[in-house]
Amino acid sequence: MQDRLIFLIGAPRSGTTLLARMLGAHSQIYQRAEPHLITPIAHLGYYANVQKAPYDALNAEQAIKEIVADLPGGEADYLDALRAYTDTLYARLLALGPGKRFFLDKTPAYALVLPFLTKLYPRAHYVVLTRHPLAVLTSYVESFFDGDYQVAVNHNPILARYVPALARLLRERPVPLVHVRYEDLVRDPETNFRRICDHLGIPFEPQAIAYGEQGDAPKGLGDPTGVARHTRPVTESVDKWAAEIAADGERLQLVSRLIDTLDPADLETLGYPRAEIVAQLEAARGAPVPVKRAAPTRYALERKLLVALRRNIHRNRLGRLLKRVRFALDVVLRE
Q1: CA quadruple 16, 22, 24, 28: dihedral positive or negative?
Q2: For residue range 112-135, what is the model confidence (pLDDT) as tens digits?
Q3: Domains in the chain, ordered, with CATH?
Q4: Is this prediction's pTM over 0.85?
Q5: Long-range contacts of 17-20, Cβ-Cβ distance < 8 Å, separation of 24 or more
């Protein structure tokens, strides 16, 4: 099954849904929405554990490590067992796309378990998509936190998590891969999609670039806001992040502190040198902020409401009421 798997690796809001739509429009590739098959089994205790799981994670961690130590093949036997589980599911999913040669798994969270994934599937095909870190941050904040950078960063330090993980993969290259920058993909989709097809060993199909003309996107987890508005790659979002950040002094200070915490070598590896990022922010000072003309979607309105409700939720009257309601529901629904 390994040689029939394609893992599309990238941070959230980095364009992975766009590229997945293009790859999924290829005649030899079957695509589903984000399967999230790998992340749970990466946290069973041997490689990482889940501290808030409904069992004692420390006991589970000790037990599984003792079991693996006693297996004749050690860690290799354990990986074989985990792979038997995922292979079965991947094979059944691929069977849903008759005539397809590859199954495409585009789950951004896999970027955070890459040492495990590359051990589990060293012979799979890897496509790594990177995007300007501040474009990722801006898209993440606007899509999920109604423009509140501080709340977004407190909820998920997305740059601190994904930049080092992706840089390490690109530096160490434990598996064969092709690396594409989002900015290059949308500016010259033909050249960069051809590179990807060559890496996968499949013929270049130019019609796949117009992914929106090849059918609807898979239903499920994934980009809820952006890629569905277009039928092929566009460049409108490449540079607008700089003006949005530079237009607000507090926002600019926050983002500058975030950049200072990132290793310059990691940024260089991803293709976005720190000096270049600083220069872009300086050049954007005083630039007009892009106007958001699109009518708000139901999803955007729901996110706006949730962000507003979450502010000070643990210290205000609503939060105290919800905690009492949750406690009562836990008692009523307890099995």
Answers
A1: negative
A2: 999 999 999 999 999 999 999 999
A3: 2-133+147-235 (3.40.50.300), 298-335 (no CATH)
A4: no
A5: 17/106, 17/217, 17/222, 17/223, 17/226, 17/227, 18/182, 18/185, 18/186, 18/211, 18/223, 18/226, 18/227, 18/233, 19/106, 19/127, 19/129, 19/180, 19/185, 19/196, 20/104, 20/106, 20/222
